UniProtKB/TrEMBL annotation:
<comment type="similarity">
    <text>Belongs to the GroES chaperonin family.</text>
</comment>
<comment type="subunit">
    <text>Heptamer of 7 subunits arranged in a ring. Interacts with the chaperonin GroEL.</text>
</comment>
<keyword id="KW-0143">Chaperone</keyword>
<dbReference type="InterPro" id="IPR011032">
    <property type="entry name" value="GroES-like_sf"/>
</dbReference>
<dbReference type="GO" id="GO:0005737">
    <property type="term" value="C:cytoplasm"/>
</dbReference>
<dbReference type="InterPro" id="IPR020818">
    <property type="entry name" value="Chaperonin_GroES"/>
</dbReference>
<dbReference type="GO" id="GO:0005524">
    <property type="term" value="F:ATP binding"/>
</dbReference>
<dbReference type="InterPro" id="IPR037124">
    <property type="entry name" value="Chaperonin_GroES_sf"/>
</dbReference>
<dbReference type="Pfam" id="PF00166">
    <property type="entry name" value="Cpn10"/>
</dbReference>
<dbReference type="GO" id="GO:0046872">
    <property type="term" value="F:metal ion binding"/>
</dbReference>
<protein>
    <recommendedName>
        <fullName>Co-chaperonin GroES</fullName>
    </recommendedName>
</protein>
<dbReference type="GO" id="GO:0044183">
    <property type="term" value="F:protein folding chaperone"/>
</dbReference>
<keyword id="KW-0963">Cytoplasm</keyword>
<comment type="function">
    <text>Together with the chaperonin GroEL, plays an essential role in assisting protein folding. The GroEL-GroES system forms a nano-cage that allows encapsulation of the non-native substrate proteins and provides a physical environment optimized to promote and accelerate protein folding. GroES binds to the apical surface of the GroEL ring, thereby capping the opening of the GroEL channel.</text>
</comment>
<dbReference type="GO" id="GO:0051087">
    <property type="term" value="F:protein-folding chaperone binding"/>
</dbReference>
<dbReference type="GO" id="GO:0051082">
    <property type="term" value="F:unfolded protein binding"/>
</dbReference>
<dbReference type="InterPro" id="IPR018369">
    <property type="entry name" value="Chaprnonin_Cpn10_CS"/>
</dbReference>
Amino acid sequence: MLKPLSNRVVLEVAEKEETTASGFVLPESAKDSPQTGRVVAVGKGVLLPDGSRSEVEVAEGDQVIFEKHAGSEVKYDGNEYLVVKDTDIIAVVE
């Protein structure tokens, strides 16, 4: 499994629907990148000058909303993930 470093978080991005509720198929140019995902791994946090670590505010399994165009796409073991900084995550869906 991927183990993120520092304040990085590995997300499994939710798939965007290809059609509208009324059945229209969306062209590639009309689709935005999805902004929701499930946290699959969390780093230990940023190392602070005093030797402690800042706590990452999300946990494995959380459903989150993140900034558009955030992070780096990674393919690992046949799956696609997004690795983002914890500061790119803007909300946890409860």
